[in-house]
Write a structure and sequence with these properties.
This protein is mainly α and 137 residues long. The chain is 74% helix and 0% strand. The protein has two domains: 2-63, no CATH class; 73-135, Orthogonal Bundle (Helix Hairpins). Helix 2 runs antiparallel to helix 3, helix 4 packs across helix 6 and helix 5 runs antiparallel to helix 6 (112-135).
């Protein structure tokens, strides 16, 4: 029993960290409740009722739609670092990066860490902008 609780806790932590748990709590909870009910009915010798409960759980899972994922936390952090919207275009990102690097670069009195952080933020935001452009979103 302890192992099952630890496994469920680890799964919930992972789902929360990936941004999947909270927006899909009703979907996941309904399917899990139906699955647990089906297991309970199966263990008490009622396989037909267990099959009905499993079917209801599957129907709930399908009816609830696709999983929703929260926006990438790293993307939001990168956007805040460059002071641009998370859905900014490549030109805006490059302009904000150049402006920030003017003071953050080690030659301008900044630090290596600050310059690296800005460059990583730029790269992440540019990759996201390219992906949006390719998918048409």
């Amino acid at each position: 029993m302890l192992l099952a609780i630890l496994a469920v806790g680890a799964l919930a932590w992972w789902l929360h960290r990936e941004g999947i748990l909270l927006p899909n709590l009703l979907r996941l909870g309904g399917a899990a409740a139906a699955g647990l009910l089906a297991l309970r009915l199966l263990s008490t010798g009622r396989p037909m009722m267990a099959l009905v409960a499993a079917g209801v759980g599957f129907a709930w899972w399908q009816w609830s739609g696709r999983p929703v994922r929260l926006p990438n936390r790293k993307l939001g952090d990168a956007a805040r670092l460059l002071n641009v919207p998370a859905d900014a275009g490549s030109d805006v990102i490059w302009q904000a990066w150049r402006q920030a690097m003017a003071t953050a670069h080690p030659d301008a009195g900044g630090s290596d860490a600050a310059a690296q952080a800005l460059t990583q933020a730029r790269d992440l935001l540019i990759a996201a902008a390219d992906k949006r452009r390719e998918t048409g979103r």
